[in-house]
Design goal:
30% of the residues lie in helices and 23% in strands. It is an alpha+beta fold. Strand 1 and strand 2 form a beta hairpin. The protein starts with a helix and ends with a strand. The mean pLDDT is 82.
């Protein structure tokens, strides 16, 4: 598996786990020769892989629309195979590189 495949795996997990957050989906990009997942319209804590922050931020809005699921803390994504390092670059992008 290369960096692009690892990034696509993370994108697929984000779409499955929290894709409802926005109509815009995460994208695979190369920034300064670095493979990155970029999702500007995603929750601000997704690169930190913080499942708690999403529910804390969205709960009042979701309750208003009747879309509240029971809270369960979980990761938004898992790094593929443990051979990759993932590093948040800012609140909307994640760098992926071989360990």
């Amino acid at each position: 598996m290369n960096e692009q495949q690892a990034a696509q795996s993370i994108i697929d997990q984000l779409i499955k786990n929290i894709g409802y957050y926005s109509d815009e989906k995460p994208q695979l990009m190369t920034i300064d020769n670095q493979t990155c997942v970029v999702w500007e319209a995603g929750p601000c804590d997704w690169p930190l892989n913080d499942g708690y922050g999403l529910y804390e931020e969205l709960r009042p809005m979701m309750e208003e629309f009747g879309k509240v699921e029971p809270y369960k803390e979980r990761a938004f994504f898992e790094a593929p195979n443990g051979e990759f390092e993932i590093e948040p670059l800012n609140s909307y992008s994640l760098a992926i590189y071989k360990d």
